[in-house]
Amino acid sequence: MSINKKTKKNLVIASVVSVVVVAAALGIWFFLQYQQDRKTVDVVPLMQVTTTYWGDQIYSSGTAASDNLQEIYPSTEQTISDIYVAEGQQVQVGDPLVQYDKTRLELDVESKDLAVKQAEIKLDDAQEQLEKLRKTTPISTPRPTRTPGTAATPRPSTPTPAPTRTPSPTAAPTATPAPEPTVPPADVTLYQRLDKDSRPYAGSGTTEDPYVFLCTANCTMTREFLELLLGLGVEEGATPPPDQVLYSPFAAVFEVREGDSNYGELITSFRLDGTQLTAGFDQLEQLEDGETLESVADIFDAPRPDAPDEATPSPTREPDNYNDMGYTREELQDLIAEKRQEIKDLQLEVKQAELDLKKSQLALENSTVRSTIDGVVRTLTDVTTATQNGTPFLVVSGEGQFFVRATLSESLLGSVAVGDTVDVMCYDNGMSYTAQISTISTYPVENANGSYGGTGNPNSSQYEFTAVIDQPEGLTNGMYLEVTLHVQGEASADALYLWKAYIREDEGGSYVMKAGVDNRLYKQYLELGATIYSGEYVEVKSGLTAEDYIAFPYGTDVQEGVRAVVEGTEDPPHPEEDGSENIAVGSSQEEDNLEEDTSSALAPDGPVLYDEGAVADANGAAAFTS
């Protein structure tokens, strides 16, 4: 009997202790939740950390000089076609002196323009592939690992004896053919019919680097495609329509590969080079309907003899995802990160191609060399002799003028032009002047220190320019001058530019910490544009409005779900209808939200739990409130 009483006593004590422990744990948990929810993060109105664009100021420097000479050296890359002046002739600013042959310069501009278009096509393709990856749903389990072969089943340790019988001739075993390797599906467009809107998956369309198209065995070409390839009906120097994908004329290779995939082995291919055939086909444009050109077009657009006797089907539309590839979430994240890096590299390639085009256009514009000063042609010698001696063949000497020579960054060549007005400040006499740019060199300056301040890039090549100073009273030779150029770039004055310090990045892209309508922080992803003021501000194309509040995105307390208050106050950024204090929910609520969003493959780092408007209940109160 005493044992039973003791057992009961121990059970009562154990129960009381368990209740106390549970109560204490719950109390601690609620206390921690309460303390966590009492945390707040300051937010500021968006307009407080944004700016507008009024143009950049670029600074450079030079020294005042009055012994103004214009020296023209023979060019090793260009041929002089005309000389408009004679020795001893009076000239004024803007008078033509020398004309270089434009043919080669025009060809160079066309080549650079084509390079820009090709770089843009590559960028567009990479961006399309990124969108497909972002729309791809990952598989729930990893793909099974493919093994070279199947292990043989082990024999039992004691084999069962077989009944004895008369041996018979044993047939030779039939060899089991090894399974053929599976060709991955194509990730480029497969064409059954080529028209003017078809896109190659490689190449730039030149003889050295032809376009490459992936085709079916019975692929056909339309007449429009053939005419673009041969350059028929395209006027020389004409700009192609904005909706035209292919640059005419062009060279192309047409491939048929195993499995109709760009990963398959090459079965057959042939090449057509319209850049070399164009001149020979000029006379075909004069043919009437029904003659040779028409029949050639009919042959290219007709089905092959072994093709079904039916209308040629349109190319199968590519799916907008890679679901059939069976990528896991980790593989998708890696592929998306790689594609983002590829896009950044291609964006730089496009910018470089555009800069090269601007330089070629500038060289074409400067093919007519004009006088930069009012003066006299002092020297005009034979070009061949000047080339051998390394001396200028034409020299113009000016009188009574002051000028300044300074440098500008290569990236500004297309934004600064001859005739632009610049401001000049002389610290020696404290006076300000205006000057007009008279020349911009087409060759970089060796060992230039570069510009400073503004948006000039000191790491890029520097190009010298000369500006003639208006009303140079008070200037003497050698005075130090600071030159200010006012550059209006391609940025829009109406756009919204956010201070870059408020922007962070993760696998999902660039984002800010924004206060939602429930006055809780969450990640808001942005579409960004151009940068201004030396990259200090970034254009926000979508994701924010002028009425939003955002937090400085660094610090241990800056997390999704934390309450937001307006900086310098305890007030919430958005009105709360019931005035009740928000209480953070536990992890179960977050897990429920997570399970609801796992079907989305657009955010590899997980769903946005505090998306504005997505957590409101039927009464309008936030779902993350008690």
TrEMBL record:
Keyword Transmembrane helix in annotation: yes
Region (Disordered): 128-186, 301-325, 568-611
UniProt main location, coarse: other
Regions of compositional bias (Acidic residues) in chain numbering: 589-598
Coiled coil: 329-363
Domain YknX-like barrel-sandwich hybrid: 70-394
Pro residues biased stretches: 156-166
Pfam families: BSH_YknX
Transmembrane segments annotated in the record for this chain: 12-32
Biased composition (Low complexity): 136-155
Subcellular location, record wording: Cell envelope
Gene Ontology CC: one annotated term: cell envelope
Keywords: Coiled coil, Membrane, Transmembrane, Transmembrane helix
Protein known as: HlyD family efflux transporter periplasmic adaptor subunit
